[in-house]
From TrEMBL:
It is found in: Nucleus, Nucleolus. Residues 24-200 form the Ribosomal RNA methyltransferase FtsJ domain. Residues 801-814, 824-835 have a biased composition (Basic residues). The gene is SPB1. This is AdoMet-dependent rRNA methyltransferase spb1. The lineage of its organism: Eukaryota, Fungi, Dikarya, Ascomycota, Pezizomycotina. Residues 396-406, 481-501, 644-672, 836-851 have a biased composition (Basic and acidic residues).
């Protein structure tokens, strides 16, 4: 079957995909399924004949639906791949050979149902398509009359054309019930329709002309066409559902403009033609030459004649007026309009589209249109166009609102979107009419909760209601509501970000595994931030930062309180107790204190190890505790990595490594041991160390335009954004950057925690085995019954066994070639355990690669 390549993608609709999914060979399957759903003819059929069956989807449906052991025979010009429980062959259904073959397959049987979905080379000229389609239908009907059982069903596809009525008439002569239907899966753009003819009358004798296309489709007079309607409503073009005019297979029609002047039916001409030309041939058309020279034949007229199909009402009138003037000039006598009230007066050319023919000609009359009528019509047109514009606008508004609501429901609206969109329905400056909202946590939570109600209200509101309410509502109310929504949505946005973070998810899973109660992430409420001294929450924040998620919401609050290391989660509870065993004492690389430091460094940019348990530390201002307040002041807009307050709790020291770790010089002196790991911090440290800056200077520097910002009432998303981009830029020296780079390189060179853990586990197992071995061998050695030789043999046996247990045998994976019965889904026959399916191509490729590798070796 020829498929138009053009628009091929657009043809891939849901039925296409459904067919693919269900394993039908064509989407056409659904047509039969839907037809059968409506008329249930398959269930009761024991024998079916499918005419034009390739690729076979109807046969598949029939095989599925008809009772077991039914006879299904399909024929097509194209080959049909075998379908279980069916018979198919290749032939032309119009041929006698095909009839004979069907007879051979059916033997004495009669078909309960004959289906026909034939489509001859669709895509060529429409009229030809329709005709051959109708011929096919007649051919299939012929076969049906021969092979159908009395009371049988005939289902056929018919292309809507002027002949379909004739076909319907024929069907009605042969069947008790004839219904025309178009199943939903048949595309609307397609002219195909289906006839389900039930109750075959099985006449004993039939006039052969009955099914002869030449007789069946004999011409019938068609009704007169309303040309005026065609011309005066040019925009309402009808599709050529009935195909082209007989003998007229071109779509472009043009005549000389002079013909238009001479014609008695100018309206028809304007409706039918594409162009009026002024091309004069050599032997010349005098009328055309004269017309070409007329002053009335203006440039505008010529332009209008160029393409009649794009003209509107106004242009058609212009052409008709021009025609009348030309006729007047050429001395065509206008026929006295006896039939219009006997008046002979000429109608004003411009006032109406009335046209009159040459004396004695048959004239197509168009009702005269007087000034008043014209005016009324113009007013109506204007009104129509205005209301159309309004309707369009209203529709657009509604759609936008709907979209907004849906997006809000789906949490797709980001804060910036909201601002922009709010500018529409809430007023052009809605973003700038935001009012301060009490940022107190309690109130805030209510607000957050309120936003859902607000958005629900928004959702249920009809656009019209919205408009009315919008007018009635106080502007302040609008602002409040909008801000509430903004805040609420922002909360949501933050939460979603949080949830999306795989790191956080992993952390939660870890916590769950440890049996710790998962803390619900509440967003970055100021209240929370202020009260947040809880160590685990701080850990959350640090992990967030590591993810690239900056928690500016906490600015102005203490960012990096260190929680006890056990809680921080470097090791799971089980792992921690596991590694605390004595056996790990001397294993290098298992220093969790170090590890925590590394993580901490990564998080905060400052590596801190407390010298004394309760000491409060500052990254930069190391020694002067009085600087605390000054440093805190600047935190809202400072890089946290530069200045961080780190609190440690006494119980932190319970970590064994901490106590055993050799203390640094700073620690022994009671000063905090601070390792600087960001280039900015290093630059500052250098500056301090080299005396380029002083503590006081540093503190002074922290009073800048970024400190003491009035953040009250500002939306959180705005603060977040500000925090990211509007902050002091600290200088970084090349030496500091190089030092940090070197440091990080050294850090990165260390194996990751998992590797260290795995190695340690391995060592542990080996040590345990050794321990057992020692015990056994000492038992053996002490046993007095055995001779020395026997003892030695047993010990070496034990040693060999211990060695073996260390090496795990990998289970072999069977490789199965995907050919023959192994090609389908599921486990290949006779294969147990793990297997890997390979196809011939893959196998060949692998072999090829091996060969190439071998060649290269040589
Ligand atoms: C729309 S397809 C049929 C699809 C089929 N019902 C199915 O479900 O797979 C139309 C088929 O009519 C076949 N056809 C057209 N003219 C034919 C003819 N004279 N004899 C047999 N088959 C014909 C074409 O080869 C084409 O495969």
């Amino acid at each position: 079957m020829a498929i138009q390549k053009k628009n091929a993608k657009a043809r891939l609709d849901k039925y296409y995909y459904l067919a693919k999914e269900k394993g039908y060979r064509a989407r056409a399957a659904f047509k039969l399924i839907q037809l059968n759903k409506k008329y249930s003819f398959l269930q009761n059929s024991r024998c079916l004949l499918d005419l034009c069956a390739a690729p076979g989807s109807w046969m598949q449906v029939a095989a599925e639906t008809m009772p077991m052991k039914s006879l299904i025979v399909g024929v097509d010009l194209s080959p049909i791949k075998p379908i279980p429980r069916t018979i198919s062959f290749q032939d032309d259904i119009t041929s006698d050979k095909c009839r004979a073959t069907i007879r051979g397959h059916l033997k004495s049987w009669k078909a309960d149902t004959v289906v026909h979905d034939g489509a001859p080379n669709v895509g060529t000229a429409w009229v030809q398509d329709a005709f051959s389609q109708n011929e096919l239908v007649l051919a299939s009907l012929k076969l049906a009359t021969e092979f159908l059982a009395p009371d049988g069903t005939f289902v056929t596809k018919v292309f809507r054309s002027k002949d379909s009525a004739k076909l319907e008439w024929i069907f009605k002569q042969l069947f008790a019930k004839v219904e025309q239907t178009k199943p939903p899966s048949s595309r609307n753009v397609s002219a195909e329709t289906f006839y389900v003819c039930r109750g075959f009358k099985a006449p004993k004798h039939m006039d052969p002309r009955f099914l002869d296309p030449r007789h069946a489709f004999a011409e019938v007079e068609t009704a007169a066409v309303n040309n005026e309607a065609k011309v005066f409503n040019p925009e309402k073009k009808k599709r050529k559902r009935e195909g082209y005019e007989e003998g007229d297979y071109t779509q472009f029609h043009e005549v000389a403009a002079s013909e238009f002047i001479q014609t008695g039916d100018p309206i028809k001409m304007l409706g039918d033609l594409n162009r009026l030309h002024f091309n004069q041939e050599n032997n010349g058309d005098i009328a055309l030459a004269a017309l070409d020279k007329l002053p009335e034949t203006t440039e505008e007229i010529r332009l209008c004649c160029q393409d009649l199909k794009v003209l509107g009402r106004k242009e058609f009138k212009l052409l008709l007026r021009w025609r009348l003037k030309a006729r007047e000039r050429f001395g065509f006598r206008e026929k006295k309009t006896d039939h219009v009230g006997g008046s002979a007066e000429k109608k004003a050319a411009g006032a109406s589209a009335a046209t009159k023919g040459v004396a004695g000609e048959e004239v197509a009359m168009v009702e005269p249109m007087d000034e008043e009528l014209k005016l009324l019509e113009d007013i109506q047109t204007m009104k129509d166009s205005q209301s159309k514009v309004e309707r369009k606008k209203r529709k657009k508004d509604n759609e936008r609102r709907q979209k907004e609501v849906v997006r809000m429901q789906m949490n797709m609206v980001t804060p910036s979107d909201i601002g922009i969109e709010a500018g529409g329905p809430e007023g052009s400056d809605a973003t700038f009419r935001l009012k301060d909202v009490d940022k107190d946590g309690g109130v805030r939570k209510q607000i957050v909760r309120g936003r859902m109600i607000a958005s629900q209200a928004l959702e249920t509101k009809k656009p019209e209601d919205e408009d009315e309410e919008g007018e009635a509502e106080d502007e302040d109310e609008d602002g409040d509501q909008l801000e509430r929504e903004l805040d609420g949505m922002y909360e949501d946005y933050q939460e979603r970000l949080e949830q999306r973070s795989t790191k956080v998810a992993a952390k939660r899973a870890r916590m769950k595994a440890r049996g710790e109660e998962e803390e619900e992430f509440e967003g970055f409420d100021e209240e929370d931030a202020g009260a947040e001294t809880d160590a685990s929450s701080d850990a959350d924040l640090m992990e967030d930062e590591e993810d690239g998620y900056e928690s500016e919401g906490e600015r102005g609050e203490i960012m990096t309180n260190l929680q006890p290391r056990e809680q921080k989660g470097e090791l799971s509870g089980r792992a921690a107790s596991f590694f605390q065993q004595d056996i790990f004492k001397d294993i290098p690389g298992l220093d969790d204190a170090e590890e925590s430091e590394v993580e901490l460094e990564r998080d905060s940019g400052v590596d801190v190890a407390s010298g004394s348990p309760s000491q409060e530390l500052k990254a930069v201002d190391i020694s002067d505790p009085d600087q605390d307040d000054e440093m805190d002041i600047d935190q809202p807009y400072e890089n946290e990595s530069d200045i961080e307050e780190v609190k440690t709790k006494p119980d932190e020291e319970s970590w064994e490594e901490r106590t055993t770790r050799p203390k640094s010089a700073a620690e022994t002196e009671g000063r905090p041991n601070i390792d600087i790991i960001t280039a900015e911090a290093m630059t500052l440290a250098h500056a301090l160390a080299t005396g380029k800056t002083t503590k006081t200077q540093l503190a002074d520097d922290n009073f800048n335009k970024y400190s003491h910002r009035d953040t009250d009432g500002l939306p959180e998303w705005f603060l977040d954004d500000e925090g990211k981009h509007s902050r002091a830029q600290r200088p970084v020296t090349a030496a500091a950057a190089a030092a940090i780079k070197e440091k990080l390189r050294a850090l990165n060179a260390r194996p990751i925690k998992k590797v260290r853990e795995a190695k340690a586990r391995k060592t542990f197992r080996a040590a345990r085995r050794l321990e057992k071995l020692k015990k056994k061998s000492s038992d053996l050695a002490e046993g007095s019954e055995l001779s020395e030789k026997e003892k030695a043999a047993s010990i070496s046996g034990l040693m060999a066994k211990a060695k073996k247990t260390g090496v795990k045998k990998r289970k072999s994976v069977k490789v199965v070639k995907a050919v023959g019965h192994n090609k389908g889904a599921g486990r290949p026959r006779g294969v147990k355990g793990k297997y890997k399916m390979v196809d011939a191509r893959l196998k060949k490729d692998v072999r090829g690669e091996k060969r190439a590798a071998k060649r290269n070796k040589r």
